[in-house]
Write a structure and sequence with these properties.
By secondary structure, the chain is an alpha+beta fold. Helix content is 37%, strand content 31%.
Length: 405
């Protein structure tokens, strides 16, 4: 088997329900699907790893499956972070460039971003992303890339996405235990947006919400930049648990019923339709009205979108969704969910299917793979950007040395 070479990218999405590993190769500068593996997650509680050993075992299982399919040893990966410990804040900062007007360099941009990020974060917080929203050069706002422009004072509006340092460290430790070095971390909603949301939607204003098993991660883009990120403590498993409690049945059967007959709009279900429940240990098989399932599911869906609406309102972005909402994650597949979302958020909603990479199997073009596919796209893009920056730096150094002889 060949080593995880430079032209392979591996990503790890250790979700509350499923642990997914996805591998792509860079072919002619573009990404091409190479392999994937998945395992039922273990050792997770409320979106964070609570027990290292079983979590690492699930990662190992998914990575081994991907490795065998890829015919390569996977040595490193990029991991997703999500869960209720993720937060986003907006910040502003800037630098003066001396008395005279001069050309803005990449170092000036870094200094302005450093100044903006120096907001005091609690000790247990780790920065996941520093996302410039706009640069302001000598009071002229709306600049996306000021490098090469002429000015005197450079300011930046920055979105800072953070997570619990210990929660992030647990994912990294588990990946390490499974033999994977972690190169980078990506917020799952940002990753899911990468594979499902267009540049036009980001410009007009869009909310991407990744409805997983344990939580819903979200990101809002406006005028092409990240305006807001958050995590809500409701995911698909809350719907399942409600059904299990309401029907006095097991979580396993409730999950089956949700997938098979679940619809979170009561009026969409024919009133005469019935569903048979598996017989209990001693008792006979039970029959319930299918509408009864919806009477349990609908309030949970409404709660989720009330929470989302309130979160967007508090983040000041509720009115910024010109292109509406995009939902990813397995939880988005519940029938009727878009209808409830549209009626409570008053914007159009759609499911986000990840853009297919070349050779990617159809089974991966599903909303629950949006985050993993997006992580691949994100890693590829950051690699290309870093390479371009390195090249720029090398060219500069060459010019300096050429000038010094
Ligand atoms: N067809 C479906 N209808 C309704 N719910 C579904 C369907 N398919 C999957 N789900 C739900 O999606 C959830 C799993 O989604 P996903 O695989 O995106 O979660 P995860 O990434 O493991 O979790 P998280 O992102 O919260 O860490 C489960 O709650 C599951 O019941
Ligand atoms: Mg997920």
């Amino acid at each position: 088997m060949s080593q995880n070479s430079d032209d392979l990218i591996t990503v790890l999405d250790a979700g509350s329900a499923k642990t997914r590993v996805l591998v792509a190769e860079i072919h002619d500068g573009a990404l091409r699907y190479r392999a994937h593996g998945s395992a039922i997650s273990a050792g997770m509680r409320k979106g964070v790893i609570s027990d290292l050993h079983p979590a690492a075992k699930a990662i190992n299982q998914a990575a081994t499956e991907a490795e065998q399919m890829a015919h390569a040893v996977l040595a490193n990966c990029v991991v997703g972070v999500g869960g209720p410990h993720v937060r986003g804040v907006n910040s502003q900062g800037g630098v003066s460039l001396g008395g005279r007007l001069r050309e803005i360099t990449r170092e000036d941009v870094r200094a302005a971003v450093d100044r903006a990020r120096s907001v005091s974060l609690p000790a247990d917080r780790e920065v996941v992303h520093l996302l410039p929203q706009q640069f302001i050069l000598d009071e002229q706002p709306g600049i996306h890339d000021p490098v090469g422009m002429i000015g005197n004072r450079l300011e930046v509006n920055l979105h800072i996405s953070t997570c619990s340092a210990s929660a992030a460290q647990s994912v990294i430790t588990c990946a390490n235990k499974a033999g994977l070095e972690v190169l980078d971390t990506v917020f799952e909603a940002i990753a899911a947006a990468e594979s499902t949301v267009s540049a036009d939607e980001r410009e007009l204003g869009v909310c991407l919400a990744d409805i997983g098993a344990g939580s819903t991660e979200l990101v809002v883009f406006f005028e092409g930049a990240v305006a807001h990120t958050a995590s809500l403590p409701i995911g698909g498993d809350h719907f399942t648990n409600d059904l299990a409690v309401g029907l006095h049945t097991t979580v396993e059967e409730a999950e089956f019923l949700k997938l098979q007959y679940g619809n979170c709009v009561v009026t969409s279900v024919p009133s005469g339709s019935e569903v048979e429940l598996a017989p209990g240990e001693n008792g006979p098989a039970r029959v319930v009205r299918q509408r009864y399932l919806s009477e349990i599911l609908e309030p949970r869906a409404r709660e989720l979108f009330h929470l989302l609406r309130e979160n967007l309102r508090q983040g000041g972005v509720l009115e910024a969704l010109g292109a509406g909402c995009v939902f990813t994650g397995g939880g988005s597949r519940l029938m009727g969910l878009l209808e409830v979302a549209e009626s409570l958020l008053h914007v159009p909603a759609r499911i986000g299917y990840p853009v297919p990479l070349s050779r990617m199997p159809e089974e991966l073009i599903q909303p629950e793979f949006a985050a993993a596919v997006g992580m691949l796209l994100y890693s590829h893009r950051t690699r290309v950007l870093r390479a371009a920056e390195d090249q720029g730096l090398r060219a500069k150094l060459r010019a300096i040395f050429a000038g010094s002889v």
